[in-house]
Amino acid sequence: MADFPQIAAGVAWDLSDLYAGADDPRIERDLAEALGKADEFEANYRGRIADPSLSAAVLREALAALEAILETVSKAAAYAQLLFSSNSENPVHGALLQKMMEKGTEVRRRVLFFDLEWMRLPDETAGGIMADPLIARYRHYLERARRLRPHVLSEPEEQVLEAKANTAERAFSRLFDEITARARFPVSRRGETAALTEAETLALLHDPDRDVRRAAAEGLTEGLRRDGHLHAFVFNTLIADHASIDRLRRFPDPMASRHLDNETTGEIIEAMLGACERRYDLVARYYRLKRRLLGYDTLFDYDRYAPLEEAGGPAPWGDARETVLAAFSGFSGGLGDIARLFFDGRWIDAEMRPGKHGGAFSHGTVPSVHPYILMNYAGRPRDVMTLAHELGHGVHQYLSRGQGIFHHDTPLTMAETASVMAEIITFRHIVEREADPKRRLAIVAGKIEDTFATVFRQVALTRFEQAFHRARREEGEVPAEKADAIWMDVNRAMFGDSVTLTDGYAVWWRYISHFVHTPFYCYAYAFAELLVLSLYQTYKREGESFVPKYIDLLAAGGSDSPKNLLARLGIDTLAPGFWDTGLTFIEELVAEAEALAGEG
Question: What is the mean pLDDT of residues 335-355?
Answer without folding.
Answer: 96
